[in-house]
C-alpha cells in the first residue's frame, strides 16, 4: 500500500486502467503487493494488440490482478459481472483510475477501434463512486481524438461532481454482447472465480443486455424480499401459536 501521513497508516487501493491498451507498467509496479487490487480493461486480441500483454491468465498468486482483455465486449457487461463485484468484495479505501479514452468512438483501429460513448464513461465513473466512500481519483491518460477526449472527460467530471448525467441511449441498454464478448466474459469469470466468489453468480446469463440484467436483478431482489416476509410471517404465526397453547 501507500504510506499516507505516517508510516503506520496503510491504505488499501484499487487501481483501474481506463485506456484501451494494457497497463503493463502499472501491473508490474504492484504485481507483488496484495494490498493493491489492479484491474485493467483493455483491448487484447489474443495478444496481437499492443503491447501484447494482459492475458486473462495473468493473475498474481495473491489474486490482486484482474485482466479484462477485450476482443469485443461491452464495457457495461464487464463492469456489471466482473469489475464492480470484485471491487466491492475487495472493499478499497481509495480508487485510482488511469483515465484514458482510446476506446471512445472516433478512434480508428490502430489507436483504438472501439465505440464506447462518452456518456458510458460518465456512468462507469458513477459506479466507481460507490466504492471507498466516493474517494475516486481520475488521472487523465491516453486518447488521440481531441473531441472524444473532451466529451469523455466532461462526462467523467460531471459524475465526480454529482451532476445529473444524461441517460444512456435505449439502443445501448438493449444491446446484447456478441459471441466474442460472451466468450471473453466466460474466460475472465472462469479464472477470477477461483479467487473471487462474487463473480460465480454471473456465470450464467452473460448474453443478456443491460436492460435485461437490470430487470433480472429487480426480480431477484423482489423474490428475496418476498421470501423474507414469508419467513417473518411464519415465525410470527409460530410465536402466536406457542402463546395460545402455553399454560396461563
UniProtKB/TrEMBL annotation:
Identify the residues that the record assigns to the Histone deacetylase domain, covering every copy. 19-160
Looking up Gene3D superfamilies in the UniProt record yields: Histone deacetylase domain
Task: Check the UniProt entry and state the signal peptide residues, or none.
Answer: none
Coiled-coil stretches are none
The processes (GO biological process) annotated in the record are: epigenetic regulation of gene expression
Q: Which InterPro entries match?
A: His_deacetylse_dom (IPR023801), His_deacetylse_dom_sf (IPR037138), Ureohydrolase_dom_sf (IPR023696)
GO molecular function annotation = histone deacetylase activity
SUPFAM superfamilies referenced in this protein's UniProt entry, alphabetically: Arginase/deacetylase
Under the cellular component aspect of Gene Ontology, which terms does the record hold? Answer: histone deacetylase complex
- Put simply, this protein is called Histone deacetylase domain-containing protein
User: Which species is this UniProt entry from?
Assistant: Spermophilus dauricus
Amino acid at each position: 500500500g501507500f504510506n499516507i501521513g505516517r508510516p503506520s497508516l496503510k491504505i488499501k487501493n484499487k487501481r483501474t486502467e481506463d485506456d484501451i491498451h494494457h497497463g503493463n507498467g502499472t501491473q508490474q509496479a504492484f504485481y507483488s503487493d496484495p494490498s493493491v487490487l489492479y484491474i485493467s480493461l483493455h483491448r487484447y486480441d489474443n495478444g496481437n494488440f499492443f503491447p501484447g500483454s494482459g492475458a486473462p491468465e495473468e493473475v498474481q498468486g495473491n489474486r490482486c490482478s484482474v485482466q479484462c482483455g477485450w476482443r469485443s465486449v461491452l464495457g457495461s457487461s464487464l463492469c456489471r459481472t466482473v469489475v464492480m463485484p470484485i471491487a466491492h468484495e475487495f472493499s478499497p479505501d481509495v480508487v485510482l483510475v488511469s483515465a484514458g479514452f482510446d476506446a471512445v468512438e472516433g478512434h480508428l483501429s490502430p489507436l483504438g477501434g472501439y465505440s464506447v460513448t462518452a456518456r458510458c464513461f460518465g456512468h462507469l465513473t458513477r459506479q466507481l463512486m460507490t466504492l471507498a466512500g466516493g474517494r475516486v481519483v481520475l488521472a487523465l491518460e491516453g486518447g488521440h481524438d481531441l473531441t472524444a477526449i473532451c466529451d469523455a472527460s466532461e462526462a467523467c467530471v460531471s459524475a465526480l461532481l454529482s451532476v445529473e448525467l444524461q441517460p444512456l441511449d435505449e439502443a445501448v441498454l438493449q444491446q446484447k454482447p456478441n459471441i466474442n464478448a460472451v466468450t471473453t466474459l466466460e474466460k475472465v469469470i472462469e479464472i477470477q472465480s477461483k479467487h473471487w466468489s462474487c463473480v460465480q453468480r454471473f456465470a450464467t446469463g452473460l448474453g443478456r443486455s443491460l436492460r435485461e440484467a437490470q430487470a433480472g436483478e429487480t426480480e431477484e431482489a423482489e423474490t428475496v424480499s418476498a421470501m423474507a416476509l414469508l419467513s417473518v410471517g411464519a415465525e410470527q404465526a409460530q410465536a402466536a401459536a406457542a402463546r395460545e397453547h402455553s399454560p396461563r
